[in-house]
Amino acid sequence: MSPDQLQVKAPSGTRDVLPPESSRWQALIARFATAANNAGYGMIQGPMFEDIEVFQRVGEATDVVRKEMYVFEDRGGRTLALRPEGTAGVVRAFVQHRPTTPWKVWYAAPNFRYERPQAGRYRQHHQLGIEAIGTDDPDIDVEVISIAHDLYRSVGLTRVSLLLNSLGDSVCRPTYDQALKDHLEARREDLCDEHRERAMDNPLRVLDCKKKACRDATRDAPRIVDHLCEECKAHFERVQEGLSALDIDFIIESRLVRGLDYYTRTTFEFQASEIDAAQSAIGGGGRYDKLAESLGGPATPGIGFGSGIERVLLAADGEGVFPAPEDRIDVFVVDTTGGTAARDITSELRRAGRRADRAFDGRSMKAQMKAADKSGARTVVIVGEDEVAAGEVTVRDLTTKEQRRIPRSALVEELSQ
Length: 417
Ligand code: HAM
Known about the structure:
The protein is 36% helix and 21% strand. By secondary structure, it is an alpha+beta fold.
């Protein structure tokens, strides 16, 4: 490529998150990390790409795996894929390292899906997520859902609904799948083009189809919640009871099948009414009790959720909450002598834990004072020829406009109090 043909834009469906917007990201991630840590979850940092098989287990009948994955061959001839979602890689790590259970981890990480870009839908999106592996106790379902719920609440979101479903297990699901297949078979001609051909591969997908034809054909389809076996029913009831006890409102939505195939029993989605319907899911998750086994590990149940950072912030914009925190500098150092004061004082202040900044390139006093104003600093330290000669500095409070001279040697201690 010649220099004038260089592609100078971010690829379609990706975006740069720059300051000050990025300070909201930082604040959201920090808030989530604290909430997860407080509930006993440790951070996991895994590879951004895996052997393609890791994701194929997520569901070969899903759009995410069939149509949207970024697949490539590396120089060693291995077929790899960029992570389209976080759970499969975490479960792969669990199977590989066999940590003691319950194993509770959180992540904040990018995912890649070749989707049609639009507001709230990106080819690289970022998820805050947790996974709890090693127990099928319904109380952990409540724990996982409540962490997401409380995060949204702490951000200030109020117009969010929680949809809840159970997809059953290997005892009751086959019977339900058959009942649904029978229903769909009798209406095959009414389904959308894609599902007329493929409905029988994975009948649950039809319930998730947004096309009117499929919506109409499944309006009176059998409901999974009516087909749960005794154990799944008891599990689901305990989850509902737990959510109610924690004052978490939910709506049972028997169509909620989610876009990935590993789910069993509890599934859930948080939808924000502030965002366009197609992108309204700000987070979702559920149980995946068979996933560890299908990745070659011991049978180990698990549950988790993933929440799109971009979408949570869009919902926050819609509700006018969670503004960018002010990234204020504490102290701005103005040195009009062209000497070493700005360099040395900022460094000393930072080492003492203060946020300190300065101007560069020998700018005029006026320009430096303007930069100080812009930085949001409350205190400006001014060093001119007079101050240098006296071994002093001027400390000016930008709010009260008061200023005083103090010995240079006392400065850092004084400003660190
Ligand atoms: P997911 O529903 O595919 O589930 O994605 C989780 C969340 O990521 C969505 O609710 C949405 O907020 C966000 N998201 C997904 N795709 C995009 C996109 N193209 N652009 C912007 N945001 C997006 C999972 O990925 C599962 N791994 C969640 C999970 C964890 N299940 C169990 N544990």
